[in-house]
Amino acid sequence: MKKYTFLFYLLVAVSTIQAQSPAIEWQNTIGGTSTEDMRSIAQTSDGGYILGGSSYSNNTADKTENRIGDDDYWIVKVNSAGEIQWDETIGGTGRDNLYVIQQTPDGGYIIGGESESNASADKSENKIGKTDYWIIKLNSTGEIEWENTYGGANEDYFRSLDQTSDGGYIIGGYSFSNASMDKSENRFGHYDYWVVKLNAAGNIEWDQTIGSLEDDLLTVVVHTADGGYILGGASYSNIGFDKTEDRIGPDIEPDFWLVKLNASGITEWDNTIGGNDGDNLLDIEQTPDGGYILGGSSASNESDDKSEHRLGLSDYWVVKLNAEGLIEWDNTIGGDAFDELTTITQTNFGGYIMCGRSVSDISDDKTQNVIGLPGDDNHYDYWVVQINSLGIVEWEKTLGGYESDYATDIIATIDNGYVVAGYSNSGSTGDKIGHDGDHDYWIVKLADDFTCDAPGGIYSDNISATSAKIFWDAGLDSSKYQINYRPIAGGVWQKKNSVMFFKNLTGLSPNTTYEYKIKTICGDISSPFSVLYNFTTLPLKEGVTDIPDFSIYPNPTNNNFVLSADIAATVTTIEIYSLHGTSMYIKEIQSIGGKINEVISIDGLQAGVYLVQLVWDGNMIVKQLVIN
């Protein structure tokens, strides 16, 4: 699959100053006197939160029931201030580990994990293989409505769940089982992706095994707006069976592997994404434009799909895809040591928020030293990073105590704040208050940091007889900007949008004063307009009565293009700019018989969108060029 679209290949050229990170509004440490590993959080319809993970504790501290097996599912409901309302221990006599919890439309909950338990306690069925998927439907107070075990005769490791538009569920993980019991297909390699479609009662509608000859480890499955599904995980496989591309990194390291299914589970496309080392995909969300945001960790330097060198041993790596799975942009985010992303999700205003763990001190994107004890790579902290819609870091925050704190999930809240959740063995040190056992659930509410202000630093430049370029300072929390302009004498406002911090206005009238104003759009809301500014276009030179014909073809192009224009000037300058204003090519050309017909070589220019500008005798015209 072709990797890059020609949309905004300019991420590395855009920079902003980081804003101050939001303050801690409240926090809570929740656990028994042994070990709790929290994996998932969701905001509930009453404004509170539902927490899910696993527990090895008996009835101690915050835990109201003894453990049932080696590890049990442990569900905790808290109110909007993080205070416990109820908890529920669910399990059999073996090991049961919960990974996902979501609230359902009926006010109850769907939870998913993996189980090694036979029929015992809350589990109604014997295990099928060594490890199975175990899905449970709860009512609003945490009582079991139904539960079901899914698997083949060997190992099946659950990792992800999503609700579907028909009231059912899609569940996924990776499997070592051949066709047996609930599994309808043999494995292709070692481990394969295994996804199962369930109806509202938890009955299997279909299942699909997807993979190649080596390990393919699914970490996330998401129901998409078209009724299909996007799958993501780590792949060690070359071309074979369902995989259409060889691995990119070395044999022992994975790549991101995306697979798009239709509503029936049939593969529509797949894409392998990576660099020259290990790249591990952890999370995906579909974006409002129909594309996808990917979050994971990378040890790769600039190579193949990766546009930047690594900053430390491992960094956060964020990749934006369009609806066809082609890369629009990517960004490497990290410090000088080890940073591992676990979750990425969309904010309420068009950007993205992510979390994971970090042992990096102040360096590169990281503005705070590690809080955990220095010199020990196991003393990591929560690391939260917010980026805008183009992947630019807006702020980041390190949270932790003096021991180990591992953020596993983050959500944007209805009040425009965030709750970051995970597990911790830190005591009351650093940012952390409270400690119950070896590992506890630790949830931290970050205050509303939302700002949607009108842009500043507004000015106009590059003014010709028929065009002008408007610039402004990029604002925090912006998803795009709206520019309204018209002749100062009056008339209908013309409207243009830009996701960048500039906009070319073309098709203007010569020798005319225009007024303009700009507002910031932040997701579903917008700022007031700025005050009015103005500029005046240049007059046409004597003898120039019309805008000349000007064409470039082919457009889009893969290498060279032909520039054709009816210009009788002695010397005309052609200049090609990137969208962020960098001059990439310049040449002076002469017309013959009042016409220009010039072949322009674009060798060395990367795929993307560019502006081709012609300047002659004080006049300027601009056209857009797309390079595939």
- Sheet having the most strands: 5 strands, antiparallel
Parts with pLDDT < 50 across at least 5 consecutive residues: 1-16
Class of secondary structure makeup: mainly beta
Q: Approximately how much beta-strand content do the residues carry?
A: over 45%
Mean pLDDT: 91
Question: How many beta strands in the DSSP annotation?
Answer: 43
Calculate Rg over CA atoms. Answer: 28 Å
> Which outline best applies?
globular
Helix content: under 10%
Kindly report how far apart the N and C termini lie: 14 Å
The helix count comes to 0
What does this structure look like?
By secondary structure, the protein is mostly beta strands. About 0% of the residues lie in helices and about 45% in strands. Strands 31, 32, 34, 35 and 36 form a five-stranded antiparallel β-sheet that branches. The protein has a four-stranded antiparallel β-sheet with strand order 1-28-27-26, with no helix packed on it. Strand 12 (about 190-200) and strand 13 (about 205-210) form a beta hairpin.
Q: Can you lay out the helices and strands and say which pair or pack?
A:
Blueprint: E1 24-30, E2 36-43, E3 49-55, E4 72-78, E5 84-90, E6 96-103, E7 109-115, E8 132-138, E9 144-150, E10 156-163, E11 169-175, E12 192-198, E13 204-210, E14 216-223, E15 229-235, E16 255-261, E17 267-273, E18 279-286, E19 292-298, E20 315-321, E21 327-333, E22 339-346, E23 352-358, E24 381-387, E25 393-399, E26 405-412, E27 418-424, E28 440-446, E29 459-461, E30 468-471, E31 480-487, E32 494-498, E33 502-505, E34 513-522, E35 525-526, E36 533-536, E37 550-553, E38 560-565, E39 572-578, E40 583-589, E41 596-601, E42 608-616, E43 619-627
Antiparallel strand pairs: 1-28, 2-3, 3-4, 4-5, 6-7, 7-8, 8-9, 10-11, 11-12, 12-13, 14-15, 15-16, 16-17, 18-19, 19-20, 20-21, 22-23, 23-24, 24-25, 26-27, 27-28, 29-30, 30-33, 31-32, 31-34, 34-35, 34-36, 37-38, 38-41, 39-40, 39-42, 42-43
